[in-house]
Amino acid sequence: MAVAWVDSAFPRSPRGVVKIARALVAFATLVCFAASRSHEAYAALAAMEMVITALLFLLYLLKLDKRLGCLLWPLADIFNSLIAVLFLLIVCLFAIIIKTNNGTLAGGVLGLVLLVLCVVDAALLFRKISFGGPRSTTAAK
């Protein structure tokens, strides 16, 4: 029997939809910060968030989290989301307060939307982790 290398249900699952939304909003935030020629740290944070989210999406899509079992990937993903929330809160509030132009303001507002998506992603992942019982076998759960 052939082994499926791609989890085709993951992009349609709640976690998959949130990951896709995070990557798209991070890209829009990056475009706003880059087009407005705001401080480089704003664009760097949005770019890092977009890349890390895309890599985690690929990790779950290609079922690499099951094959690389040495690390509890959902827990690492939660830590990534919480650290992103901290950085996004600081950077986006600075961008909104300083608002050198409308692009910086739009990037800051989109960054706060991204912050909310990170919190939702962390909550969905926290529901998936079972500390005392066996690990879940379905990616869409």
Structure description:
The chain has 141 residues and is mostly helical. 72% of the residues lie in helices and 0% in strands. Helix 1 runs antiparallel to helix 5 and helix 4 runs antiparallel to helix 5. The two termini are 25 Å apart. The model has no long low-confidence stretch (mean pLDDT 83).
Descriptive labels:
single chain, 0% strand, 141 residues, mainly alpha
Mean pLDDT: 83
Give the overall shape, derived from the CA principal axes: elongated
Parts with pLDDT < 50 across at least 5 consecutive residues? none
Alpha-carbon distance between the termini?
A: 25 Å
Structural class: mainly alpha
> Could you give the order of the helices and strands?
HHHHH
Beta-strand percentage range: under 5%
Helix content: over 70%
Describe the structure concisely for a colleague.
The chain is mainly α and 141 residues long.
Which helices and strands occur, and which strands form pairs?
Layout: H1 14-35, H2 40-61, H3 64-67, H4 73-98, H5 102-128
